[in-house]
């Protein structure tokens, strides 16, 4: 039962991370798109916009950092305990954990870029 709760917890953290990434990526862009539709001569310049709510923007950044760190620490600790059973040499353990840590960071990057871009409205890019 504990293992199932841990898996649900990690999935919840990933969903939370994706939600914070979505808030971070779309804050302010909806207003820019509304202005673009109203004014045909408006040129949208990528990465040059001001967010609608700076507080929401800061909350999204902090939420991304905290949820990403929680997922990284929990999953790395879980895999370290698993690796410790099967690998006797300490240097090989460290290398295996570092490889897994790189995989986790790439997974978070994939969540941020792929899942958020799929769910963003048409015309927005991250």
User: What amount of the residues lies in strands?
Assistant: under 5%
Average pLDDT: 75
Task: Count the E strands.
Answer: 0
Structural class: mainly alpha
Q: Helix tally? A: 4
The overall number of domains is 1
- Residues in helix, %: over 70%
Structural account:
By secondary structure, the chain is mostly helical. The protein has one domain. It is 78% helix and 0% strand. The chain is built from four helices and no strands. α1 runs antiparallel to α3, α1 crosses α4 (90-119) and α3 (54-86) runs antiparallel to α4 (90-119). The longest helix has 33 residues, at 54-86. The model is unreliable at 40-44 (pLDDT under 50).
Question: What's the quick description here?
Answer:
The chain is mainly alpha-helical and 126 residues long. 78% of the residues lie in helices and 0% in strands. Helix 1 runs antiparallel to helix 3 (54-86) and helix 3 (54-86) packs antiparallel against helix 4.
């Amino acid at each position: 039962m504990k293992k199932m709760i841990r898996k649900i917890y990690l999935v919840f953290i990933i969903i939370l991370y994706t939600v914070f990434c979505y808030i971070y990526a779309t804050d302010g862009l909806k207003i820019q798109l509304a202005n673009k539709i109203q004014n045909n001569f408006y040129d949208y310049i990528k990465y040059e916009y001001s967010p609608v709510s700076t507080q929401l923007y800061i909350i999204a950044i902090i939420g991304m950092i905290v949820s990403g760190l929680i997922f990284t620490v929990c999953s790395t600790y879980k895999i370290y305990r698993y690796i410790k059973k099967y690998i006797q040499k300490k240097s090989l353990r460290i290398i295996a954990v570092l490889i897994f840590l790189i995989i986790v960071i790439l997974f978070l990057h994939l969540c941020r870029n792929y899942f958020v871009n799929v769910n963003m409205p048409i015309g927005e890019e991250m």
